[in-house]
Amino acid sequence: MHAIWCIAQKELKDGLRNRWIVAITLVFALLSIGISWFGAAASGMVGFTSIPNTIISLASLAVFLIPLIALLLAYDAIVGEDEDGTLLLLLTYPLTKAQLLLGKLLGHGLILGISTALGFGSAAVIIALFASDVDLYALSVAFTRFILSATLLGVVFVAAAYFISSLVSEKSKAAGMALITWFLFVLVFDLGLLGLLVATDGQFNPELFPYLLLLNPTDVFRLINLVGFEGSGGGLLVMASEVEFGYMTLFGVLIGWLLLPLSAAYWAFSRRKI
Amino acid sequence: MSVVHLENVKKDFDGVAAIKSLSLNIDEGEVLGLFGHNGAGKTTTMKLILGLLEPTEGKVSVFGHAPTSSHFSDYRYRLGFLPENVSFYQQLTGKEVLTYFAKLKKVNKSRVYQLLDEVGLSHAANRKVKTYSKGMKQRLGLAQALLTEPKLLLLDEPTVGLDPIATQDFYQMVDQLKKSGCSVILCSHVLPGVEKHIDRAAILGNGQLQALGTLSDLRKQAKLPLKIQIQGELNQDILCSELENITMDISSLDDKTLEINALESQKVHILREIMKHPGVSDVDIQPPSLEQLYRYFVENDVNTGNIDRSHFMNSQAKQKEGVQ
Predict the structure, then answer these.
(1) Is this complex's ipTM strictly greater than 0.90?
(2) CB contact under 8 A, B104 and A274
(3) Which helix (H) or strand (E) segment is B31 a member of?
């Protein structure tokens, strides 16, 4: 535990030092405040509309940004240390490979958690202060759920980045593969599902369809922030509203999505030539 | 009990043997010089001892335990390692880097300052590592290896990038560590200067030990000539003819200097002859240097290759006889 915490602290300090935390927080804060206030501008309204609308807009933003940020944050976690020669050194320290991975995960998780909480939290605070007729309880529940799931989504992609980082021998290759991963999960997967629907004239087994969404952590994240808001949401997620997944199930699936790349990362790291 | 014990260790990389067969023992407080040219297996040997690689065959034990086992973590506190190329964390200061490594080894902060002072980095402690010269990084690496007052220290090319004074300081530190019971493995291909500070030398070549022993053992084994230089006002022709029946390898450097190459066993005879001449003003005896020994044992490997081949031809010849 001592070693894990040492490494997590270092990652966290690095995050502060290289301004990652500040940058991510600012991006999230500006975008989320903007969306909360001007999200309904298209329909001729300016100002806060409703909690469901706001959360759903924020989710569609976060689903693009968070995986990208997480991958960028962590793609060089292993291969970077290897290139600097510090990996060789660290492994001669009282420290196992699992502890090294978990320490980094904790550190990167904290970076994402802090930035997400501060960034999106500031939008919640502004809504609570300036919007009229807001159910504060509902607001805090919705934003807490949003921030938790967003952080978890980020950590899933951090773990995916570790897997990539453990596999390759050059930093640039890791960056490229991280970008491909982002592209596959955030864009290609949903397009593929849409294509499937169109190709089958919407006749594709409707019972099976919602479960296909669980195969992509970004869709699980969107489902978490959609559940409970009646008749809202757009695109593919409408298809899922026929099956009600509970929060527990969805968070469970997301945690499963964390364990999968993390185990893969450990496997690849153990086999890596030092 | 020996601190490091390697028994018939073999290590393959994708079917190619990096270490063919290696047995080695290092005792407490012993300084072993591990020498060999590039690709001889020095770094692989170090990694095997550090538990970063699993031997393909044979047994490695450090402090009496397999270094690749999971419970070896507890023994790593007593282990210091200086890698050959380490650039550390460029964006951190020297002090921050050392503090991080100290925390991982549960060493308190006062030791960090003490070490920075000892390796002469106090003035640069708050500068980022990316501004450090090669020698400064090397000193930081050294400080890092010494955090816990280790019982076993592995140093890969420790003096690369160090200036002569820093090198001297470094060797003095090795001597001190040795006195306090720390075993040291010094891995290097830079040979001058290291002789006085190692107990034994291991010369690696082709994935196996070409020679192992104290320097005087190796000198005896190699039977390399020692060099005797005589200076003074003397009749060189007479002296040469007197020494002729001991050794022929005499050359005149100038009219006041003679150089004789002779075997260890001939030394006393030669000196006795020389001393009969009143004109001799100075005699200088140089035993073969580590560099010459290294050359001898590494090149000797080529010879054993030849012997192997002739052995192979012999067995072929025998087979032919058998056919007949």
Answers:
(1) no
(2) no
(3) strand B31-35
